[in-house]
Every structure is written in structure tokens, then in C-alpha cells.
Amino acid sequence: MAVRSPNLNVMIRAVEKAGKSLIRDFGEVENLQVSVKGPADFVSAADKRSEQILHEELSKARPDYSFLMEESGEVKGSDPEHRFIIDPLDGTFNFLHGIPHWCISLALEKGDEIIAAVVYNPVQDELFTAEKGGGAFLRHRRLRVSARRNPNEMLIVCGHPGRQKATFDEFQAEMRMVSSTFPAVRRLGAAALDMAYVAAGRADAFWERFINPWDIAAGYLIVKEAGGFTKDYMNNKENPIYTGNVLCGHEFALTEMQGLLNKAHK
């Protein structure tokens, strides 16, 4: 079992506290389904409450650090080199519909590197963590990416880029190409958790375009420390956090997926 750094312990305490708030709210969602407007407003408030808890807890422990948050944007601290990147509720639409595939994503960036990461699914109490050079873990169990090599046995996960015709048509082309080789393609609806599943060997690869830094910053390190690879598959860059295009997986899946996605854009 790896020894957790003080920074990672601070991050775990913060996500677990925010997770308790989200679990309470998640328990109320089904009661609101009779209202047309109510659930969405309620979930938006839950999202903001979670972010406030995370910001408060992390600020108390690391008052000088900077923040990049989904709801509140960038908050610069006196220490610009260290920055927490926060998605307080990834998988909002799942949450809204009472589907238990959602999470909190929290990464710590130092300079231009992610050095610590947490992805937490409070419903199942699954805590995925990683530190640079220290491995990736589900609680205290070491994570390794899958060793599957038969496309018929592999599970590929994807994200949806939105409704604009140009992006939707591109996504459809990607989906047709990937599905021609990999029969099992799923859209689960929470990118950070999907990437953690790749690290845990539950899925073999994940891809999405037009994605935000807070959705993938934590997953990026967790996949890397589990022996996987992550890249910007449109521009062939190793670090996709700020480019908006992400592909991750074990080496075999990544190579196969890159070739298929390249063909989709020809």
C-alpha cells in the first residue's frame, strides 16, 4: 500500500465531505421527477453546493493554492504554481435521472503537470486515486489497465460532443468506424469515472471530443499511473487536458483506436 501525501489526504477529505452532500441530494432527486423544472434546478444547486464545499475545504488546508472550477471558473491564489482543478459533479444528467454513474473529479496541478488526482463515486463509495510516480489505486488496491487483446472481448467507452450538426456528424463517423472493429461501445455519461474505469481494467479505452479540463485532469493521471496512455487523438499530443480531445486506454487499445479515429476523419 502506497503512503499518501498530505496533499492527497486533503483532497480525499474534501471529496468525501462533498460526496455526503451529493448523496443527500441524490436521494431527493426521485421525489422531484413529477416537476418539469424542479429537478434541473435542484441538480444545479446540488452541483454548486458540492463545489462550495470542495473550495472551502481545500482553501482551509491550502489557502495559497489557485483553483480552476467548473461553476466558478478560475480563482487565483498567491501560489500560482499549485492549482486544484475541480468538477464537483461529473455526470449531471445521470444524477438528474437517478442513475448512479456520476462522480466528483479533483486534480492538483503543479506547473504544467498533474501531481495528484481523485475521482470519487459516492453512491458506490469507490475512491480512485493517483499520485505522480506513486501508482493508481481503488482505495488501497493497486490498479492496472486491462491486458485484453481481442476486440470482441473489449469494452470501449465514449462521450458525446453535443448537438451541433458538424460535431455530431463527426462523432457519428467516429462511432461507425470504432464499432466496425469493437462491437461493445458504450456511452456511460461521466468522463472522469469512465477514465477511472479504464485505469481499473473495467473498460479498455475511452474517447471524447470538445471536453473540458475539469472532466479529464484527474482521470489523466489515474490512467497514466495504472499503466495506460492518454493523448489528444486529433493532434497527436501526449497531454490532452487543455486541447479538448481525449483518447485513453491500454497500449493495444490506444493504437487500434487511434488508427480507426484517423480513418473516420479522412
Task: Provide an overview of this structure.
By secondary structure, the chain is of the alpha+beta class. It folds into 2 domains: 6-142, Fructose-1,6-Bisphosphatase, Chain A, domain 1 (2-Layer Sandwich), CATH 3.30.540.10; 151-264, D-Maltodextrin-Binding Protein, domain 2. Helix content is 40%, strand content 26%. Strands 2-1-3-4-5-6-7-8 form an 8-stranded mixed beta sheet, sandwiched between helices. The chain has a 5-stranded mixed beta sheet with strand order 10-9-11-13-12, sandwiched between helices. A hairpin with a 3-residue loop joins strand 6 (126-131) and strand 7 (135-138). Helix 4 packs across helix 7 (251-264) and helix 5 (191-199) runs parallel beside helix 6. The radius of gyration is 18 Å and the shape is globular. The N and C termini lie far apart (46 Å).
